[in-house]
Structures are given as structure tokens and as C-alpha cells.
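Our working data are protein records whose layout never changes between entries. An example says more than a description, so a record of this kind follows.
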Amino acid sequence: MIVEYIRYRIEESRRSAFESDYARAAEVLSRVPQCVDYELSRCVEEPAAYTLRIVWTSPEDHLQGFRGGEHFPAFFAAIKSYVGDIEEMRHYERTAVRGAGASVPSLYEWAGGASALERLTEAFYDLVRKDDLIGPLFAHMDPAHPRHVAVWLGEVFGGPDTYTRDHGGYRHMLSQHVGKAITEAQRRRWMSLLLDAADEVGLPDDPEFRSAFVAYIEWGTRLALQNSQPGARPFPNAPVPHWGWGVAPPYRP
């Protein structure tokens, strides 16, 4: 991906029209397949200064795909009268220096931290051991396995990176599934029992948390099912996924 920044200086008498015209242009951007997201910001200290940020799938997709495509004429028609007000228009590469602040708690914090996830996995594997469908998959389970899974979930949901540092990271988790030939019925039972355990131990049941929680286990169990099939060749060196409030991991093998 590449980030385009366009900086404008718009005099006061034209600002209302500028924002209105960019709202029309944004309707076009929302239909552009090469566009990841966009945002127009106005400077608080210097209201004449505006910055448009557009994330494109690649520089080529922007310069050739978008500008040479069907959506560009409508986009340009909406904003062409402001081209002379541009002070900068450049592409920027993202660096590794990025992250989230603490104004919104992580899923890990919202769930109750390590102790809550350990209660969850202990309750879950108690249910698993008694289950006829998936119990046999865990017949020889290491007694420490529930705690290790809690550590994995903790890192996935924004807690410490302990699984990566101390338990072998994604490669080790992958090794737990390869060759197991998990069935769809087993995957669904795994999900069902984990949700039962979440209720049993009192994990937060607000819609926002539960929707993110379910989204991860749906994604994770489907990936585990695919990776467990005979002949599967999963990519072994992925990072531990990081899951947030309605946000999927960005990693793609």
C-alpha cells in the first residue's frame, strides 16, 4: 500500500464549497477498487490548511489504474477547481513506526486480562474433554495446553507478546493443526463450546466485544481447518494475528 497526501490552502470564502465538493468526490472514491481508505482533515490552528490522505493499494494502481480508469473523470470534475490551491501532492511509504494509543482499551483489557482468558480456556477444555465429537482430538493433551491457549489469545487480543517470545509464535500454533484433518462439524463444535465457556466464566457479553470475539474464532477456526487438511501447505512464518474492535488482521500470506 502507499499513502498519498495532498495539502491545500483554501481561503475562508471557499471552504464550505471545498468541503461540499470533496464530499461529492468521496462518493466516487468509495467505489474505487484501488482505494483502501481516505480522510480529509482541516487544521485547527490554521483553518485554511487542509490535508487529504488517501491510501492506495499501490502507486501503480493509483497513477495508472485509478487515473486511467472509469472513476477518475467524476472524481476530478468534483475537485478540479481546487488544483491551483495544492501546496503538496506526494506519495509516502508507511514505516514500522505505528500503533494505537490507549484511549480505546484492547480486547485483552476489556475481556479482563490474563486471568479472565485463563478461566475461559480452563472452562473450555473441561467441556472439550467431555465432548464425543472433539474430545478425541485432545485425548493426550498436555495439562499446560489450556494456559498456553490463553497466552495465545492474550497476544491476539492485544496483550503481551508472550506467545511469540516464549512459546514459538505462529509457527508453533500452526504445528498443532497440521495433519489433524479437522472436519467442519468439529470446527463448529469447537466454536460452540468456546462460546458456552465464555458465558460460563462471565466474559463480557456486550455486543461490541462479543462480535469481535466471535469474528476472531470464526476466522481462526476456519484457518485451522484449512491448514489441517491432507496436502495443505500453509505459510509457516506469519506473525501472530492481532485482532481489534471490528478490525481483521492485515496479514495475508
Residues 107-228 form a domain with the Globin-like fold (CATH 1.10.490.10). Confidence is low (pLDDT under 50) at residues 248-253. The two ends are 15 Å apart (CA to CA). The longest strand covers residues 2-9.
